[in-house]
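Complex 256.
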Amino acid sequence: MTKFARYEAHGEIAYGVVEGDVVKQLTASPLEDYEVTDHTHTLSEVRLLAPVVPGKIVAIGLNYKSHLGDRTPPAVPEPFLKTTSSLADPGQDIVIPREALEENITIQEEGELSLVIAKRCKRVSRDDAMNVILGLTCGNDVSARQWQRGDLQWWRAKSSDTFSPIGPFIVTDLDPGNLDLVARVNGKVEQESNTSDLLYDVPTIIEFVTKMMTLEAGDVIMTGTPGEPGNLHPGDTVEIEIEGIGVLSNPVVAEA
Ligand code: MG
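Predicted structure with magnesium ion bound:
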């Protein structure tokens, strides 16, 4: 099991492997051929960044029975796209757009197990799916509900700036089918589940998406959210915690 981080230290961005509270710098990103150097920092000395810079973010909708409410389960996985401009780092503010505040839009977190793709791939079978995944991270599919329901596309409901925090680490060799997932707002548990409750499991998602769409190294797939998310307001702190990965924590602020 390897835990990768991307971080800024002394104004420079680097990749590293995390052992305890020490991060050892890599010569390249974990998507490339890299070597571990003896250049180290403690985690408290660095600013953690989104652990990968994806070329695209695919997210799966309606993928937990507990999140469906009275909706029918989808007959196939339901992917949609989130923009890379909506990416946010661990600890970075989630900014609620001015218009969302003016229109009293409900903003919610969606805690999601997120996959980081290791290499370019197309038409991957279920049996090969784990071979194209570098590792797993925590994702927050921040959602603006009335925009999600009312707009023709989910462009601002799901991809307003900072609506896609990921991190804090990418962890390899975890079983994506059996991980506890918790989302907390100001310390209060809002979502609590296990990824064994996914309607479409990780190999099925990979097989389905790659029938039509090439995935590239570094692409991220958010696998869906369980239960009923909480509401986010300026001043809140939202945490997504997944067993074996860590806690993705972000403050929530109003757009200035
Ligand atoms: Mg979602």
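The mean pLDDT is 97.
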